[in-house]
Every structure is written in C-alpha cells, then in structure tokens.
What we know:
Elements lengths: L3 H7 L2 H14 L9 E4 L4 E3 L13 E4 L2 H6 L3 E2 L16 H10 L2 H4 L2 H7 L4 H12 L3 H19 L4 H7 L5 H12 L3 H6 L8 E6 L6 H11 L5 E5 L6 E10 L2 E10 L4 E6 L7 H11 L6 H8 L3 H9 L11 H10 L5 H15 L17 H6 L2 H5 L5 H15 L11 H8 L7 H10 L12 H6 L10 H8 L6 H11 L2
Parallel strand pairs: 2-4
Antiparallel strand pairs: 1-2, 1-3, 5-9, 6-7, 7-8, 8-9
Helix pairs in contact: 1-2, 4-7, 15-25, 16-17, 16-20, 16-22, 21-22
Amino acid sequence: MQDVSHTSAAGTVGERERAYYRAVLSKDSRFDGVFFTAVKTTGIYCRPVCSAKTPRASSCLFFSSAALAEAAGFRPCLRCRPELAPYALQQNLAHGVWQKIVAGALNEGGIEQLAQQVGLSSRQLRRVLLQEFGVTPVELAQTQRLLFAKKLLQETRLPMAELAYAAGFGSLRRFNALFEQRYQMTPGSIRRGAKLDGEGLVLRLAYRPPYAWDALLHYLQGRAMPGLEAVEINADTGKPFAYVRSVRLHGKTGWIKVSHLPERAQLALQVSAGLAPVLMPLLAQVRTQFDLEANPGVIQAHLQGDTLMAAQMARNPGLRVPGAFDTFELAIRAVLGQQVSVAGATTVSGRLVQKFGDKIDTPFIGVSHHFPDAALLAQLPLEQIASIGVPKTRAATIQNLARFSLAGGLQPQLEASQAQMVAHLKTVVGIGEWTAQYIALRALRYPDAFPGGDLGLQKAAALAPETRITEKQLLVRSQAWSPWRSYAALLLWQSLS
C-alpha cells in the first residue's frame, strides 16, 4: 500500500480527505492517532482502525485531534475507544506543550504556570495551541481529562471519587456533571458496560504495529539497574516476557509491571495501588519509555533505501528506541557506561542503587530500591560515590550531573534544537559528545540523536567483518538516515547481538 502519511499532508484538503478515507476503508494502523473520523449521522468519532462498519465518505469528517472532534460536538466511540490511540507527536513547540497537558500539567497548576514553564506568555500559549490544534489549552486539557476518566471507567475498578481525582477533576460532582454534559451518558453507565480483565489495577496502552517487543526487552534486560528494575523470564519458554521496576512519582511510591498483548496491539501496564493518584503522569512516562508513539511505517519507508538498514528491519520489524522512565536515572546510567562494557556499567549502577537508594517492598525478585535522589548524590562526599567501584573523576561527574539536574538542566527545553540541548548537556564537566548524544537519544527522545563515536556503531556499519569505520565516516553515512538516526543506531546495535 502506498505510504500516504507524507503525500496526504503535502496535498490539498480534498486529497488529504480522500487519503484518510482510504485509510479508514483499509483500517490502516499507520494512521491510528494521526486523525479521527467523525460520523455526521451518528455524532460519534472513531479511530481509523475501528472495527465498526465503515460509513459512507459523505458522512465522514476528519479531525487531527480528539479535542477538535469533541469541540465540534462528537462523542468518542465505545468500541474503538479513541483514548487508546497512540499520539501523533511532532518535534515542535505546540506538541511539546500538548505532551505536558497530557501528563496533567493543568490539573494542579494553571495556564500562567504552564506558560512560564515553556517560556511563553499565557496569550502566546493560547495562540500556539489554537494554531496547531484548533482548541484552547483549557479545552485540550478538559478533553484529555474526560477521555482519561473514560479509560479508567472501562479498565479499572477504582472507586468513582478516586477515579475522578486521578483524571484531574477537583470534585466528583464536577466530574459527573461534565462527563454527562459532554458524552450524553453517565459514568456509571460506562462502567456497567465494561469488561474487566483480571484483578488489580491494569491499564492498556496501544501502539502502531508492528512492535519488536522481544528485541526491546532484550535491550532493557542487559541494561537494567539491579535493585531498581528487572526483566522477568518466562519459566516455561526461558524468554523475557515482562519489565518491572519501582516508581517514585510526585510524592507517591510503588511499582509497575509492563507486558505485551500482541493480539490487541497493546501493552498491559499493571500498577500498584499506591500510584493510583498519579496515573496520568505515570502513563505518559511509560508511553515515552516504551516508544509507543513511533510510527514504524514512516520510519521504515525512510530507512529501507539503505541495504544495511533494510536487512536489519526485516529481522526486527517494528524496532523501537527504548526510552527512559526518568531522565536523571538514564543520564547517570549513561555516565556509568563511559568507557566500560555494558555488563560492567550494569554492575556499578546496581551498587549505586542499592547503596544510596531508599528501600521498597515489591512482589518482584530483584526490585528492592528506588533510584537515589539527585539531592543526595549532589551532597555526598566523592569518596562515598567512588566506593561503588568507579574512579573519582567519574564520581565527580555523577555529582556534577546531580547538581545540573537540580538546577533544571535535564528538563527538556521545548524550543531548543537537538544540537542546542546536546551542547547544553556538554557544559557538565565529565560529559562529552557520546554521553550527551546517548542521553538525547534515550531520555530526551530526539529521533535524530546519534552517538557517532560509539565503537559498536562504527563496527556494525563497516562493510568488512572484524573492522570498523571512523567516526567521521559514520557521521557522513548517517546523514542519509536523518531524521531517524536514533532508530538507525538501534538497528545497528541490534545487528551486533
């Protein structure tokens, strides 16, 4: 099938609508989250992959966001559930602000506070979102809260008051009133029709298939920090099947478990009860860590012209870039990985966690601590940090990075380019180009980040076995892979295993 995700965006409105309708007819998963189809005869809007009977083209309207569809008076489909759709993220200011709203930025703070965080006035913030999404920040946040509440109604047994609070509503009365006003049905009626799987707090997160789950788990398994996180092994097959870790988020503590539901093109996220109040930001971080917004069709279409990339993509279709649950954790892990093997870095990172992290009880073997606070690492004597088995210079870099983080240095700057953010990271004494690019690749989610100085990448890109090309040669060759060089890097690393 033709890749219309590029051609439609560049064409006229009529061409784009025809391309979108073809995607609806074929239930093309590449467009899931890219647009929503509203049906004028029913007043309902759906994902392109909805299993319901396809409406006539004359009955369809297409919206770039759920908020825009709801602002036009349409209700979400109960079958395909628009709140499950992967996001259609772009690297621009408006989508950066939108990500913060999705994570609940307006649930506690107001417009002025969010505007200050992103370096805009409240008027500029409103204008940026109106231009990109056609709705105001408040309308965008309200739609997100209602859809998140609908998700919790259909997937959990949370009491209504807890559910309303977790979705960002200040009171149960206001939640009930807004939900019924917007969707013309009560929260109770949604819950009565829900089919819940199993016990406990389990949420589902959709992605655009294919998804190379086994390859992602294999990557995380080799780099998991003992005590903080682990990859569980299936006793029958001997293969990795789930990722588990401790969580400390906005003053709440607990644990999560992430597993795969390939028949549904979803991940299952099991959450400990103590994390219920922070479900909205928690889900945003898990989606980022597991790269659920990636559009593998678009990435493959760009990279498959390179024979090396094409061969590796054929072996691992749907390869994702493993992200980070927490930027500071990943940055410290990157520092510990400087000039040592992956196994060596894993060992010392486990010592750091177990020596300086707070203890937590979890049901998982190997998950017993939280990651150490930046404030603690910033004030520890260098000798104590070095006692985990690293040189004092490396211990000093850890301390420098902790202080940098406390000063807000690891917070993504929405208007900063990748080059600017890499340069900003390199102002930390002890962080060079490789470390900065690795942090940009995995933690800051720049899709074009590329640590060209990595010896493994230089070896994987060489044409002759047991040789490697130079960093300069690799960077020249990598230009053809831009703007998806992060995925090219993962494909090259994967080819070595």
